[in-house]
Each structure stands twice: as structure tokens, then as C-alpha cells.
Design goal:
Shape: globular
Number of strands: 4
Radius of gyration: 16 Å
Strand content: 15-25%
CATH class: Alpha Beta
Distance between the termini: 57 Å
Order of helices and strands: EHEEHHEHH
CATH topology: Alpha-Beta Plaits
Number of helices: 5
Strand order of the largest sheet: 2-3-1-4
Number of domains: 1
Helix content: 40-55%
Structural class: alpha+beta
Oligomer: single chain
Length: 134
């Protein structure tokens, strides 16, 4: 009798968060930075970034995490690393925003199943159209 390994459970979350005071600062260079940085940060942790949606006032992420990984710790790491790097990379932004921490406190997340992935991916991809930017 052979033992069949059961498929690894997959855990997906749609996460959103925003810059301090929801200031509309996530344009061009900052968006490009986030699209580069988020997968890089994910390589260090127990998660992967599946989809990224950026509009000037907030970020949408679809992530897959290990079932044992702590989602709140993942979000805290993403925010801490990107906050520090954004403020270093774009010092004029820190002056304009008058902040020492780029992201507002708090975030929102919703757990998804494989059945809802296509829908949430499409929603995240279409954020600019949804907000009338494209």
C-alpha cells in the first residue's frame, strides 16, 4: 500500500493598506518601486505575492502564505520594509508628507479560496480602471 501525500493547503489573502492620511502619493516611481520590492520581500518570508494593484491612495495585494505563517507579521514586515525604503529612496516625499512612517496604521484583509482567486485577481488588476485612472 502506497501512501499518497495530501496536497499542501493553500491560504490566500487580499490585503489593502494606504499611505499616511491616505495621501495620494503612490504614483509612477513609487508604484514601480513597490512592484519591484514586494516580490523581493516575499522571497525572505513565508509568502508569495500573486497580484499587486496600486492606485495613488492605496495598495491591493493578493498573497499566498504558508498555513502556519502569521499574516499580521507578514503585513507588518511588508509595511516596515517598504516604509523605510520609500522614505530613503524618495526623501522629498517624506518632506512633503511630513512623516517618519510612510504607511498609515492599519490594513484590511479578506481570506480567499482557490475558487475565488480569478475574481479577486481581476479585481486587483482593474484597480486603476475602477478608480477612473486608466
Amino acid at each position: 500500500m502506497t501512501k499518497h501525500s495530501s496536497p499542501k493547503p493553500r491560504v490566500f489573502y487580499h490585503v489593502t493598506f494606504q499611505p499616511y492620511r491616505r495621501l495620494p502619493v503612490l504614483y509612477d516611481e513609487v508604484e514601480a518601486y513597490l512592484r519591484e520590492a514586494l516580490p523581493r520581500i516575499a522571497k525572505r518570508g513565508e509568502f508569495t505575492v500573486i497580484e499587486i494593484g496600486v492606485v495613488p491612495t492605496h495598495v491591493h495585494l493578493l498573497i499566498e502564505k504558508a498555513p502556519w505563517a502569521n499574516l499580521l507579521r507578514i503585513i507588518a514586515e511588508i509595511q516596515a520594509v517598504t516604509s523605510n525604503e520609500i522614505l530613503e529612496k524618495f526623501p522629498e516625499l517624506a518632506l512633503d508628507m511630513k512623516v517618519e512612517r510612510f504607511w498609515a496604521e492599519g490594513y484590511h484583509y479578506v481570506r480567499h479560496t482557490e475558487k475565488s482567486l480569478d475574481t479577486v485577481r481581476q479585481y486587483i488588476r482593474n484597480q486603476k480602471q475602477h478608480h477612473g485612472i486608466e
